[in-house]
Amino acid sequence: MPSSDVGLPAGRRLRRSPDITAVVRRGRRVRAGGLVVHGRRREAVDGTHPTGPRVAFVAPRTCGPAVRRNRTRRRVQEQLQAMVRGGTLDADVDLVVRLLPEATGASTPELGAWLAAALRKLGVHR
Questions:
Q1: Who contacts 64 (Cβ-Cβ below 8 Å, separation ≥6)?
Q2: For 64-87, what is each residue's pLDDT tens digit?
Q3: Centroid of chain to Cα 68
Q4: Residues of the chain whose pLDDT is less than 70?
Q5: Are 119 and 89 within 8 A, CB to CB?
Q6: Sequence-ordered list of residues with C-beta below 8 angstroms from that of 106, at least 6 positions apart, any chain
Q7: Are 52 and 11 in contact (CB under 8 A)?
Q8: pLDDT for res 42
Q9: Among the four 2, 12, 68, 70, which has the fewest Cβ within 10 Å?
Q10: E-assigned strands of 9-107?
Q11: Burial, 30: exposed, middle or buried (Cβ in 10 Å; 0-12, 13-18, 19+)?
C-alpha cells in the first residue's frame, strides 16, 4: 500500500486538458538537463488567492517502457513535493513537467537539481 506522503494531493494536480494546454501554449518553457518545464502564473479567481502550485507530468513513450517512465515520473514528483512542503515553490503557478529520454537514466539528486534549476529559471523557486 502506498504511503500517504508520496505523490501530490488531487488539488495540486492539473487534470483538465484545457488547463494543461494553456500552460504549454501560453506559459514559459525552460529546459534543464532531461526535463522541460512549462510554467504559467495563475490569476486569482473571485478575489481568492491560489492555495498552492498545480502540476501535470508528461512522460512520453520515447522515455522507455511504462515501468521506467512511471518510476522516473514518481522520482521527479517526490522532488517537487519536497519543494512544496518546504515552502520554496510559489503558490500561484501551474506547471507541466515533461520528461526527456535522458531523465530515465539520471539519479534522483540529478533529477532534483534539474528540476530546481528549471524552476529558478522560471522564477517560481526560492
A1: 101, 104
A2: 999 999 999 999 999 999 998 888
A3: 18
A4: 1-7, 44-50
A5: yes
A6: 33, 34, 72, 114
A7: yes
A8: 84
A9: 2
A10: 28-32, 35-41, 54-58, 93-99
A11: middle
Q: What is the DSSP string of 79-116?
A: HHHHHHHHT-B-TTEEEEEEE-GGGGGS-HHHHHHHHH
Q: Are 35 and 111 in contact (CB under 8 A)?
A: yes
CA angle centred on 33, ends 107 and 121, rounded to 5°: 120
Query: What is the H or E stretch that residue 26 is in?
Result: helix 17-26
pTM of the model: 0.86
| Exposed/middle/buried for residue 54 (C-beta within 10 Å: 0-12, 13-18, 19+) | buried
Long-range contacts, 21-26 (Cβ 8 Å, 24+): 22/94, 23/56, 23/94, 23/95, 23/96, 24/96
Tell me, what amino acid is at 90? D
